[in-house]
Amino acid sequence: MRTGGQLIVDALEANGVERVYSVPGESYLAVLDALHDSRIENVVCRQEGGATMMADCEGRLTGKPGICFVTRGPGATNASAGIHIARQDSNPVILFVGQVARGNLEREAFQEVDYRAFFGTMAKWVVQIDDAARVPELVTRAFAVATSGRPGPVVVVLPEDMLTDAVEAPTPLPFVAVETRPGRPEMDRLVELLEAAERPFLVLGGTRWTEEAVSQVCAGISRWRLPAGCSFRRQTLCDQLHESYAGDIGIGANPKLAAYIKQSDLVILVGCRFGEMPSADYTLVKSPYPDQKLVHIFPDPEELGRVYRPTLAINASNTAFAAAFAETAPDAPPRWANFTEDLHQSYLEWSTPPMDGPGAVKIGPVMAWLEENLPEDVIIANGAGNFATWMHRFHRYRRFNGQAAPTSGSMGYGVPAGVAAKGIFPDREVVVWAGDGDFLMNGQEFATAMHYGRPIIVVILNNGIYGTIRMHQERDYPGRVSGTTLTNPDFAALARAYGGHGETVRATAEFAPAFERARASGKPAILDVLIDAEAIMPTRTLTEIREKR
After folding, report:
1. What are the φ and ψ backbone dihedral angles of 356, each rounded to 5 degrees?
2. What's the CATH fold of domain 352-546?
3. pLDDT tens digit sequence for 491-502
4. Torsion angle in degrees (nearest 10) through CA of 113, 154, 456, 507
5. How confident is the model over 525-545, as a mean pLDDT?
6. Rounded distance, CA 477 to CA 480, Å?
């Protein structure tokens, strides 16, 4: 006889879970008790949004479902921030939510929420386990759903009295991953389209890649001399110094690259949905009928033809397609090799930071120093905001799993993602690139980094405003500032208050030694980099935007 809480933990162990992220609550005390004697690490977080973002980062970097536990009501509603990210970013996550006792349902009991209604449009599947004997079945099914087709979040609801029921139940068995593979006719057709093309382009994106699959697809790109790029915030899928790499496709893409894609006669989308952001509001590849011939490779057949009507649709996982693509080769030297070389050179120029700018701290030289001094396998975690543009444009990602950033544009992702990344890859350096407003959304997870001894380095570009919104505000309502000014704490002092290392950077020359001291401290660290609000973008100041220059 085992309790429902014990069965939950047994099912997680059977499915290979190494760690879970949680904010404790009385609604799932039986699970916490079962974790006490488990080999699973319980990473206790400070807020449920941060916890689910950590779980999302786990799914993003490993391809396995990130696991999160939160309590009912406010806990679950806070957690929805991370579930929204997992949905839009197609990352496998399983959120376990405590619920009121079964006998009190439909009475608006203390902190009761209808989770099927609440999470129904965000999660792939929402299930409430009312019979403890079904825990092994339904938890294993949750793993299968989260990883199959288009990956995404699953919500499992746990009535508190079910968790204390002692029942006979089968021994949990692990889920079986489903791989969809391209057929010979589809690959032959792809080769035909490539051999007929004059100006092709390949886009890498999506999730659940492996290092081997990335290596295989890049080998195929090399063989075909294909110009290739990465979808928005998927830059870790290709070495940016690969001879075929043309840049990332998203907000503020290289205009030369954008023009080439619009003029291409064949676009190949591998693993990505190519939504609003990477497609530049569906202008690079028009919806529903693209100007180019379109090959769309995706693991979920329901996504193929949903936004774009492709010339060729291939229902295949990223790993299976990469293996098949690596076996293809052109019959003759590709006609587009000059385009490939030209686009790569344009990328190198585009990703070279400017050495000047407004204010005492010039972000361009900071980026140049980081490029010289960060290890090739560094992991960069960030949330959303104009501050992120500097990293996305000027950092050349070299290794697989080097980027943890939300395609959904969610602020507050960087700190929790950095904490999770350092736990998954303790031997790799982790840098959190944050804005001041971005940091304050989930900066309390710095305490989690302290608690578990994870020495992340948080670089805060502090301009005292909600920069992205101010930029749009000055463009549309020039001179009418409303709701976009911030009053910030002393972030360096905050780091020290937590027990970490903290420094304030007021001039460009101060950054490098401060970063090295943060490294040497061996502690979680915050560098509060005071920048001029005018340095809103690499190419335009706030005044230029306001005056439409």
Report:
1. -135, 170
2. Rossmann fold (3.40.50)
3. 999 999 999 999
4. -70
5. 90
6. 6
